[in-house]
Amino acid sequence: MNKESAVLERYSEGANERQESLCCPVNYQVDLLKILPEEIIEKDYGCGDPSRYVREGDVVLDLGSGSGKICYMAAQLVGDNGMIIGVDMNNDMLALARKYQAEMAEKVGNDRVQFLKGKIQDLALDVDLMESWLKSNPVTSADELAALENWKLKQSQQSPLIADNSVDLVISNCVLNLVSDQEKQQLVTEIFRVTKPGGRIAISDIISDEIIPEYLKNDKQLWSGCISGAFQELEMLQMFQEAGFIAVSYDKWSETPWQVVEGIEFRSATLTAIKREQIECVDKGHTVIYSGPFSLVVDDEGHQFPRGERMAVCERTFNVLINEPYKDDFIAIEPSTEREPVPGDVPAGTRRPASETKHANYTNSDKSPGSCC
Ligand SMILES: C[S@@+](CC[C@H](N)C(=O)[O-])C[C@H]1O[C@@H](n2cnc3c(N)ncnc32)[C@H](O)[C@@H]1O
Description:
Blueprint: H1 3-16, H2 30-33, H3 38-42, E1 59-63, H4 69-78, E2 83-88, H5 91-99, H6 101-108, E3 113-117, H7 127-136, H8 142-158, E4 167-173, H9 181-194, E5 195-208, H10 214-217, H11 220-224, E6 231-232, H12 233-243, E7 245-253, E8 259-261, E9 264-275, E10 282-283, E11 286-290, E12 296-298, E13 304-306, E14 310-313, H13 315-321, E15 330-333, E16 342-343
Parallel strand pairs: 1-2, 1-4, 2-3, 4-5, 5-6
Antiparallel strand pairs: 5-9, 7-9, 8-9, 10-16, 11-14, 11-15, 12-13
Helix pairs in contact: 1-5
This protein binds S-adenosylmethionine.
Residues 7, 11, 44-46, 64-67, 69-70, 87-90, 93, 119-121, 173-175, 178-179, 226 line the site of S-adenosylmethionine.
């Protein structure tokens, strides 16, 4: 049995009967649990609470939605204009989540949650559609296999299950670790593809403090139990940053490990990041000052901000830094005068002289306008 089959089997069991060994204690926002069916709460196999990042009006994608708990919590936060999509590859989990869809639609006001069958490492492939195609096109020869591959390619390109740049917030609760190591890179690339420019991600998962040896990865119980497929803590940050996300951070980090196996600590953490707006950088005279407490910080695009220095940034970078999660760390100075815009990013480390950032034309005889200090 390969790892994916072990995962399918384990979560089919989990959909049919609560599996104590898969339950990691989580402090959910209790108000959001009140209207959830008991069975959904009971069959909770999450390890964090990414619903805390949901905003009104969001299109939310939940990767590995399981019983639908996080989707139904998020549904209470997005309001009438928001929408939640849960993706899972397991029929039993999908059936469990869909069982309560009508009841939950009535409780939240409309049917704003849908559950789709798919693999989170290939969010373009519509597995339900492929299965119905396979009913009339069974694969029994190499030619038929090639026809299936062609069909998959066409479907993924022409009507992807989740379209490019379509999701405001991608969330996941304890699922990425279940994807094989060979497919983890593709998984992160897919998350980047579907996130809207300016969109966010909040991934709660199990991470390890050390590299996990191969023999632990090959242990099907440890793998399907959300342990040995975990990202190593630094590797996870790097993969998301290399995929193109910015502001990549661990927003939550459980001090106490959930499990320790052969001295390796496995703990729950929540990674957050944003996908930069896809607009060109233009230097229009924007300036920021990093207020501290560190002597120097460098962002995910390589811009350097020594504490207290007036640093030149392009308009796009400025707009990133004046918003979450950076805004409390930077003092923002709008361009003082109209100037010729310079296309391209401002080279890292470029200072903006104070003489270029004043918002008035002072003369030597001018006094300070304020009475204090
Ligand atoms: C640990 S459970 C977490 C379920 C849910 N997120 C929660 O908070 O209770 C993992 C879920 O991810 C699904 N899953 C695992 N690997 C997957 C994959 N590659 N693609 C889609 N779903 C997957 C499983 O079927 C299962 O429902």
